Amino acid sequence: MHLDFIIVGFSNIPFLQIYFVLFFLLSYMTTLIANLFLIAIIALSTLLVTPMYFFLFNLALLDITYTSVTSPKLISIFSIASSTISHSECVIQYTFFIAFTSVEYFLLTIMSYDRYVAVCRPLHYHIVLNRRFCGVASFSIWLGGFLFCIPISITASRNVYCSSNIINHFFCDIAVLLELSCTSTDSTQNIIFFEGSLFLTTCFLPTVVSYVFIINAVSKIKSLSGKHKTFSTCASHLITVILFYSVIFTLYMMPRASLTQNQRKIISVLYSNVIPMLNPLVYSLRNKDVKRALKTVIERSILL
At residue 300, does pLDDT exceed 80? Predict the structure, then answer.
């Protein structure tokens, strides 16, 4: 029989507890509202029917599901002052968290390919990224994310936690759980290493290569305004990529001893709560097409 776990959260910083409650509540509500708003605009507007907005629709949907894995449970822990989570709830939480993180890797990669084709092969854009390609790519991204999480979830769920059931984090983070296990975690760690290497070669490197070609193409444009106009179409995605990968590399590539557990928790908040909240704001506030589409939707609603 498996023990229930105790989520420490930020209870070891009691004087900031009320601020954490407000932050997680407000950030979760902002994430839901901002991403639902973006989904609605893309779905309702006839101006936003390009592949870029199709993938942006997927990103907004992902951000909602991503933050919903951790935030509601954490808010309930703050609200009812009960930090217990069952073993099965913990398995479900880290399974979905790994799945949605994997989906984000794939999605940001395909979005970088979209920007590469738009900038470097503009005449072939709608031929290469046709409706069939976008549909198959979207299905494969979501399916791939869940397939990647299954081996880790199955092996990690078999671990026995007999030494401690206290998770010094704000959710069931797989890295923290492996440290608590009193049985061998070699198989799980080997799978994580293998999949991490796979993500490096299939997601991170293609994204970097895409932007090398994009920057090279932009540098050949003679006018400054032309350079700015072309690169501005990639700026929002580039900001998202930089934020996501910088946080992931800081957490999982740096030696564990270089960061305290509190620092790791705060950095984890960035990619589990802050980035999903900022994504729709970055893409809408910096995007003239979205603003134009919003104006059109409002005008059409008034006329109806």
Answer: no
pLDDT digits (tens, 9 = 90+) for 224-247: 877 877 777 788 888 888 888 888
Question: What's the pLDDT band for 12 if we cut at 50, 70, 90?
Answer: low
Which residues share a beta bridge with 7? 167
Backbone angles phi, psi at 170, to 5 degrees: -105, 5
- Domain 5-303 in CATH 3.40.50.2300: no
Of 234, 232, 229, the C-alpha closest to 207 is: 234
Q: Phi and psi of 111, rounded to 5°?
A: -70, -35
> Domain map of the chain by residue range?
5-303
Q: Mean pLDDT across the stretch 83-95?
A: 88
74 or 301, greater pLDDT = 74
Q: What is the pTM of this model?
A: 0.90
Whether 89 and 30 have beta carbons less than 8 Å apart is answered as no
